[in-house]
Amino acid sequence: MLNIQYFASLRETLGRSSETLALPEDGSTVATLAAYLATSRGGQWEILLDATQVLVAVNQTIVDRSHPLTGAEELAFFPPMTGG
Description:
globular; five-stranded mixed β-sheet; 5 strands
């Protein structure tokens, strides 16, 4: 099972802070999982497809969208951080 966390503005946009999800058959990478969530849920979930607005960490390490998934990871979706 995937343990998925949504942080900051994504939490408000998507209306949830976390969920547990079985890895979809076509969800073998971060990109395909994001596409699955966006297409199966529609609307505001399409923001997950925009890599410029949403970063992803797997097991607390920031990864790119081609990162493979086995189905036993912790994922975090979050907006880019700004500093000052």
